[in-house]
Amino acid sequence: MTETASGYLASGRAAPPSPEGGRALEADRALLGRTSTAERVADILRTRITEGFFPPGTRLAEDAIGAGLGVSRNTLREAFRLLTHERLLVHELNRGVFVRLLTVADVVDLYRVRKLVECAAIRGVDRRPDGLDRLAAAVADGEEAKARDDWRALGTANMHFHQALTALAGSRRVDELMAGVLAELRLVFHVMADPRRFHEPYLARHHAIIARLADGDGPGAERLLAEYLDTAEAQLVDAYARKTATPRPTG
Amino acid sequence: MTETASGYLASGRAAPPSPEGGRALEADRALLGRTSTAERVADILRTRITEGFFPPGTRLAEDAIGAGLGVSRNTLREAFRLLTHERLLVHELNRGVFVRLLTVADVVDLYRVRKLVECAAIRGVDRRPDGLDRLAAAVADGEEAKARDDWRALGTANMHFHQALTALAGSRRVDELMAGVLAELRLVFHVMADPRRFHEPYLARHHAIIARLADGDGPGAERLLAEYLDTAEAQLVDAYARKTATPRPTG
DNA sequence: CACTAGAGGATCGTTGAACAATCCCACAAG
DNA sequence: CTTGTGGGATTGTTCAACGATCCTCTAGTG
To answer: What is the pTM of this model?
Structure first.
């Protein structure tokens, strides 16, 4: 990574200054892009994990990953620490770091969070919300993906929809919570085959929820969403329990 | 920390086996206590930060902290990485790590999260909840602290109350979110003088909320809580903006 | 055959040294 | 007062080393 980092930084610094104004803004942009190697490694690994390149259960060996990315073990360990808190990795003392394999109880908890947060985020809507365009865009992306039979992309668009729903709460911390929840959910879907089954049936429901929100009917939208999440949870928990051959929790 | 770690581990391993049964459980207990040095350092620092030993804005120099704790810089950096995600520390590239100094906007966001999550957690209560004892215990601790004029302890008890409220949602992830929120709030209170002012007035409201919950009146409890949080927010945001001499956000 | 114990190798956790890069502070000059 | 420069302190990263732990394989025993 020494060469990559140098190249990365060098290309950032070597950008010629704009001949006319805006030079201060370019300097700011360069500052924005300055991250440590450990953080960039974490970014790379995060992407690889959430897109399924490292499936759940995969062990990330320091030597192999460090050699692959060209960074030292210490830097890699820092990156691992960054990712364990996001629940994408599990750190096991003296055994290494693994991509998290969620339990059925984890899935149940994810839906509990979603019901609590997403429903609370839209309950109070009493006029057409500002974030409706973003919701509509996510649904449009979903329809596009569906039209070309790209079920992974449909799943992604559906998650953007839910992230946008949560964003109606207007809280950075809640947004980040939901981003983490949806990332974990991605790990769950990586274990499952047949993404079509878990994403396609819900697109129409997104339309219905949007219509309620557009009318300023928060409670109506909430009811639809709660039913939707109940249905989605039951389907996924059932299938996941079967797939991972673990007993479905009684709670 | 090499000696500390060895001592720590040695004392764990040197425990004589129980002469009669239970040996397997003792072995399990020893496993539970096995954590890495980096994690233990993070625990120590977390405690020091939340109790105010390192006030917000304090820079944690690697050399000084590492020498004080007897760990190497690499181990310390791993611990720092663990804490930055908890928002207790801010990592600034090439400048070091600082105890987070929250902005007024942060405070506002913390209360937004609290209103969303705490209210949602109790809204659906329709019978005396299982967690009522824990709530009552927190309030009893608060009354005790108040009786001996220990306003810091009262603040702690109040936070236990809110953590217990959130726990009524029955979600591990939501519990952890709230633990983080309350830890951040502690940082806010460390900036303020006169803890009495921010904790004492709310003890009576805890009693009232508990009474509603004991009657299975979730919506009633929610209304009381929402008003309480609005009042607490307004008081704290006003004082914090004044203390930090930053403009109060319009949002 | 099944189970247990021990040895060896791989890997992790930690330490410490080294070096380059960056930042900050103090001082000098205009 | 402002700006520029130099020097020192510190951070970010790499590397090597070593001890501790875990896992796998082999041999021995019942």
So the answer is: 0.85
